[in-house]
């Protein structure tokens, strides 16, 4: 893998990006599986914001059932949001993180709404009280800002529309995917799930979530950039230049042929939707230094592409060398 001015082998890339597990599948068949010392196939890895991509599939289920429409105003389902920054937002706006609310996603600053939201889970308080304090900054659909608040609102709306809490809906998805191990979900003092970041699962079950993004009309829409300003290379440079944003999934190209789930400190599921090649990488790199975080993420995406390329057959049907 070439990046940051040098060429790295697989072992160096794994070490430099603080990898804790690496799983590579070719059309559903495991071709490489590695775990750091003390970890194993049954270890549940916290996916952090990869949880958002699981939430996307739950929303897709609600839409397919007819319980939810993407043009529904969120306040129609959750009237409590009528006096907040989400008062004019549609389901589609929170699904694409273009709600326009006044939100700062910086967990290094304890006073940001993102820090206070996560803190409410750590301290057993009511997380939705934080959402009720959020105001508006831009018209919905006109600006993208990474916002776990949008994810929590999206799940609140989904819950009201289906009358199923996050864990119950996730259990249905887990059964559909054929997952082999129970997942763990973080909840607040009211039992509300951290649908934007609290799901822990084995690497193999995370791979099943990725494969679920490879086919179907809902998955196809989720994998594509939602707007021109959310295409790869168009997001704020503090994140990475390698991805765009769709419907709670991260497209790796303009057409959504490759897509990823992405979580803080290096949690990834990357899928080539044309070939079914899938890579799960969990990591534990430092978060405090924003530039180091950005470089680790950039190097990770370069490596993920290299692994997917290796499983992309050449015209003769053989994997690339």
From TrEMBL:
Offer one Pfam family short name for this entry: Beta-lactamase
Task: Alphabetically list the UniProt keywords.
Answer: Hydrolase
Report if keyword Hydrolase is assigned.
Answer: yes
Q: Extract the InterPro entries matched here.
A: Beta-lactam-related, Beta-lactam/transpept-like, Diverse_Enzym_Activities
Q: SUPFAM superfamilies given for it?
A: beta-lactamase/transpeptidase-like
The superkingdom listed in its UniProt entry is Bacteria
Q: Where is the Beta-lactamase-related domain?
A: 20-287
Q: What EC class is this?
A: hydrolase
What's an example of a GO molecular-function annotation for this chain? hydrolase activity
Is Hydrolase included in the keywords of this UniProt record?
A: yes
- Which protein are we looking at? Serine hydrolase domain-containing protein
């Amino acid at each position: 893998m070439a990046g940051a001015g040098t060429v790295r082998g697989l072992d160096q890339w794994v070490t430099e990006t603080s990898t804790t597990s690496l799983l590579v599948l070719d059309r559903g068949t495991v071709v490489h599986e590695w775990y750091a010392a003390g970890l194993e196939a049954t270890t549940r890895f916290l996916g952090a914001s990869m949880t958002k991509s699981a939430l996307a599939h739950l929303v897709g289920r609600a839409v397919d059932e007819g319980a939810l429409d993407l043009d529904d105003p969120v306040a129609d389902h959750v009237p409590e949001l009528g006096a907040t920054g989400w008062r004019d937002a549609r389901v589609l706006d929170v699904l694409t993180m273009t709600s326009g609310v006044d939100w700062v996603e910086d967990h290094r600053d304890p006073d940001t709404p993102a820090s206070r939201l996560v803190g409410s889970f750590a301290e057993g308080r009511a997380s939705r009280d934080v959402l009720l304090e959020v105001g508006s900054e831009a018209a919905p659909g006109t600006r993208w800002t990474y916002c776990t608040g949008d994810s929590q609102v999206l799940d609140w709306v989904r819950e009201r529309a289906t009358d199923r809490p996050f864990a119950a809906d996730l259990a249905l998805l887990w059964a559909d995917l054929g997952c082999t191990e129970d997942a763990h979900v973080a909840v607040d003092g009211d039992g509300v799930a951290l649908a934007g970041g609290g799901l822990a699962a084995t690497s193999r079950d995370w791979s099943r979530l990725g494969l679920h993004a490879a086919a179907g009309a809902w998955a196809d829409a989720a994998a594509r950039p939602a707007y021109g300003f959310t295409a790869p290379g168009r997001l704020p440079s503090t994140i990475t230049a390698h991805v765009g944003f769709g419907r709670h999934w991260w497209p790796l190209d303009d057409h959504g042929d490759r897509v990823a789930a992405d979580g803080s400190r290096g949690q990834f599921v990357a899928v080539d939707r044309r070939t079914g090649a899938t890579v799960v990488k969990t990591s534990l790199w430092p978060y405090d230094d924003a530039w180091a975080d950005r470089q680790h993420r950039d190097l990770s995406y370069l490596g993920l592409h290299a692994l997917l390329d290796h499983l992309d057959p050449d015209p003769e049907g053989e994997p690339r060398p």
